[in-house]
């Protein structure tokens, strides 16, 4: 690992501190080096706040040395006005002579403009340092920019014999949720919820479990709740309508008299629902979605190949009969034990 890669790796480490708070902005990391010493570093503030480069420059005590320093950043600095001014302007203001960029920004508002501005000002610019690692880190932002859809993570828990829920007859007698995994796995799921912009479930899941779909056992932001409710069957007193979190209902009904205040409604034809959902979420500037169920919803995303990751728990219990777990194939990238639970993570290859 050379010196540029060393500092870019630090940028990636820093950037992860923004997970779950910066979207729809990317979570960027930045380090400033002067005479082989780290004099300032930062990462993207929660959405609407300063970007990584601004935070790193502000952390430098003696601004005079910036004109003899190197700035490392995971993604090309922004070149446009948004919630904050362009970061490239601040770099130019302090005449930073060398900038090392992990990845060029595919956003049409940037797309090489900052690189051109820096080079025109006499700055030495290096691009593509740890590019593969930076792409993996920025996968949510890149999915929105390059595919015009959110990064899609599927998640479910199944029994040893491959069921995700007991038969409906049992659920009608005892409507409480049936936990397949242990409390530590459940807490991990809540951590994951806090890292993604949205969480998606189908009508059956809501009617069966009346979930809150929050990250209540983990400190962090609650995701936007996205619920498929084709015929508006879900009663108004259910938890998803408690007003605590932005909620989007996807339906075929366009009668606004049936809509609940403070809830966003989006109509779809349901002919290619995963694609329609992706289009709706992209319109809402949602860069990532955590699909938690049920089986029919998960399988629809799998069958239409609208998924990027799958996180599958296998609990140490069995059901005599029930709803079969989704069928999926992909490249396994990780496996771990959480007490008696087994977790596999797949990538769509």
UniProtKB/TrEMBL annotation:
<keyword id="KW-0686">Riboflavin biosynthesis</keyword>
<dbReference type="Pfam" id="PF00383">
    <property type="entry name" value="dCMP_cyt_deam_1"/>
</dbReference>
<dbReference type="InterPro" id="IPR016193">
    <property type="entry name" value="Cytidine_deaminase-like"/>
</dbReference>
<dbReference type="InterPro" id="IPR002125">
    <property type="entry name" value="CMP_dCMP_dom"/>
</dbReference>
<comment type="similarity">
    <text>In the C-terminal section; belongs to the HTP reductase family.</text>
</comment>
<feature type="domain" description="CMP/dCMP-type deaminase">
    <location>
        <begin position="2"/>
        <end position="125"/>
    </location>
</feature>
<dbReference type="GO" id="GO:0008703">
    <property type="term" value="F:5-amino-6-(5-phosphoribosylamino)uracil reductase activity"/>
</dbReference>
<dbReference type="GO" id="GO:0008835">
    <property type="term" value="F:diaminohydroxyphosphoribosylaminopyrimidine deaminase activity"/>
</dbReference>
<keyword id="KW-0560">Oxidoreductase</keyword>
<keyword id="KW-0521">NADP</keyword>
<comment type="pathway">
    <text>Cofactor biosynthesis; riboflavin biosynthesis; 5-amino-6-(D-ribitylamino)uracil from GTP: step 2/4.</text>
</comment>
<dbReference type="InterPro" id="IPR050765">
    <property type="entry name" value="Riboflavin_Biosynth_HTPR"/>
</dbReference>
<dbReference type="Pfam" id="PF01872">
    <property type="entry name" value="RibD_C"/>
</dbReference>
<keyword id="KW-0378">Hydrolase</keyword>
<comment type="similarity">
    <text>In the N-terminal section; belongs to the cytidine and deoxycytidylate deaminase family.</text>
</comment>
<dbReference type="InterPro" id="IPR024072">
    <property type="entry name" value="DHFR-like_dom_sf"/>
</dbReference>
<comment type="pathway">
    <text>Cofactor biosynthesis; riboflavin biosynthesis; 5-amino-6-(D-ribitylamino)uracil from GTP: step 3/4.</text>
</comment>
<comment type="function">
    <text>Converts 2,5-diamino-6-(ribosylamino)-4(3h)-pyrimidinone 5'-phosphate into 5-amino-6-(ribosylamino)-2,4(1h,3h)-pyrimidinedione 5'-phosphate.</text>
</comment>
<protein>
    <recommendedName>
        <fullName>Riboflavin biosynthesis protein RibD</fullName>
        <ecNumber>3.5.4.26</ecNumber>
        <ecNumber>1.1.1.193</ecNumber>
    </recommendedName>
</protein>
<dbReference type="InterPro" id="IPR002734">
    <property type="entry name" value="RibDG_C"/>
</dbReference>
<dbReference type="InterPro" id="IPR016192">
    <property type="entry name" value="APOBEC/CMP_deaminase_Zn-bd"/>
</dbReference>
<keyword id="KW-0511">Multifunctional enzyme</keyword>
<keyword id="KW-0479">Metal-binding</keyword>
<dbReference type="InterPro" id="IPR004794">
    <property type="entry name" value="Eubact_RibD"/>
</dbReference>
<keyword id="KW-0862">Zinc</keyword>
